[in-house]
Amino acid sequence: MSSKRRIIGLCLLLGVCAATSSHAQTSAASDAGMPSTVVAKQGSAIVTLADIDAFAARIPEKERPGFFDNPTRLQNLILQLLSQKQLAEEARKQNLDKTPAVRGQIDMATDEVLSRARMEKLKADIKLPDFETRAHEEYIGHKDVYVVPGDLTVQHVLISTKTRDDKDAKALAETVEKEAKAHPDQFDALVEKYSDDESKATNKGVMKDVSKAAYVASFVEASKALKKPGEISPPVRTKFGYHVIKLVSRTPDKQETFAEAHDRIVARLKADYVNKTVQKHVDEIRNQHIDANEAMVASLRTRYGSATPPDPATAIDTSGILSSQP
Fold first, then answer.
1. Strand, helix or coil at 155?
2. Domain-embedded: residue 31
3. What is the pLDDT of residues 19-40, one digit of tens each?
4. Does 277 share its domain with 230?
5. Which among 41, 130, 154, 179 is least surrounded, fewest beta carbons within 10 Å?
């Protein structure tokens, strides 16, 4: 069977599997003479649910549903695992798994998997305290953190520094400020006449949700400083140039109640507790006494070839990184 036909067959199989129940899948597998845990076979290779589960463990839990609910991605994964298994079997027949270089990589991969497994078990074994009292203390002590910013809409004129020097840009921005304060009701005309913001053709310089969206910090702070609709800011410098800002509208910030912020506070306290507990364990391991073969460590610098000589001005002294002191 050609590669194209195999792929089409696998696509059809995936389509059928997606449309049938678990009972029907099990019956179909039995009728085909395959154990119910076998996902696909090709040559001597067999991909099982255990193989898929092992791959899924590499993906963050929240991202797994989206990854697997995609027939094309699922097809490519199965084909990749089938090819990988067949190539690995060929390597074993040629005793490549016994060569020092490959054996070292296998051992390192095993250590990495076991290390991740140990970290996950360490997290799972942590006994969490009751965070209710601490959550309330956190809320009372940092109420300003639990404020929902009000809606803030402004209109601005941008005097770009791309086509003029800083001094000229600032002077022109100051001119715009004076004209705007003299005739705030004609700000649209100032946007049309002076602004270098390319988006003015569609938004007339109006920027919405300034306190919530990802605007430049100095622009946001200057906008927040405006209190009454129609108020004009002095020129504000950003990486784009100078802005003259007019407040269009704003609604007041809203203080969240403890009940509204509760779940978010507790979730963060739990995450912090787990991270600190895990980090403490890792630090205890890292802070153990190290016996380093300094000559062997030094030899690693040229073991894999000579590097381009570093710039003396930026060179970093790494001597003593592997110290015998904890």
1. strand
2. yes
3. 333 343 444 444 445 567 899 9
4. no
5. 130
DSSP letter for each residue of 93-128: HTTGGGSHHHHHHHHHHHHHHHHHHHHHHHHHH---
Q: Are 255 and 143 in contact (CB under 8 A)?
A: yes
Residue 276 and residue 133: Cα distance in Å, rounded?
A: 19
Query: Could you tell me the CA-to-CA distances from 279 to 58, 103, 272, 276 in Å, in that order?
Result: 21, 31, 10, 5
Q: In the chain, what's the furthest Cα-to-Cα distance?
A: 86
Residue-range definition of the domain harbouring residue 221: 150-252
Residues 79 and 172 in one domain: no
Residue 262 is assigned to a structural domain of this protein: yes
Rounded CA separation 140/257 (Å): 10
* In a shared domain, residues 136 and 176: no
Nearest to 236 by CA among 168, 156, 163: 156
Q: 147-148 and 254-255 as β-strands: parallel, antiparallel, unpaired?
A: antiparallel
- Do strands 147-148 and 45-48 pair parallel, antiparallel, or not at all (unpaired)? unpaired
Q: Are 241 and 266 found together in one domain?
A: no
**Owner of token pair 């602004």:** 195
The residue assigned the tokens 């649209």 is 188
Q: Give me the DSSP letters along 224-278.
A: HT--STT-BPPPEEETTEEEEEEEEEE---EEPPHHHHHHHHHHHHHHHHHHHHH
Q: Is the four-CA dihedral 134, 135, 141, 145 of positive or negative sign? A: positive
Residue 214: pLDDT band (50, 70, 90) is confident
- Give the per-residue pLDDT at 28: 42
Q: Give dist(CA 174, CA 188) in Å, integer.
A: 17
d(CA 89, CA 29): 25
What pTM does this model have? 0.61
191: exposed, middle or buried (C-beta count within 10 Å: 0-12, 13-18, 19+)? buried
Q: Does residue 295 lie in a domain region?
A: no
